[in-house]
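Give me structure tokens for this 135-residue protein.
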Amino acid sequence: MQCHDCGCEEGQLHEPGCDMESCPFCGGQLITCGCCYKILEIDASSGTRAYSHGLNKSQQAEWDEKLREKGLVPYISYPNICSRCGRLWPEIFRVPDEEWRKYVEIHKRGKMLCRPCFDEIRQLVDSGEQRKHRK
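Here you go.
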């Protein structure tokens, strides 16, 4: 399996600037996390241009060294899996937060569901509420 952004193989390091590369400090997306500013002690309140223009060459070199010291994260494909039925790579869908909270149990809200499972859960909850109100 290859990274869909930079094309590296599983177990290899991503190409520099790859959208899929993980930060070895926080685990988030390396190109968007703020760890470089924290680790290099660049303070946004000091008026530095780094936050709006990125790191300068010397800061980038220092950041690259910090990344190598920490250990870059190799690419491994972890498939998305519906936590209810086990379907691999289900299509991602969105519902309003209020609806998600109503139908999905607290400890499952951070998990992935496929649309058919979500719809079935919604139907089960709604039918359970209707039976409760009929009594």
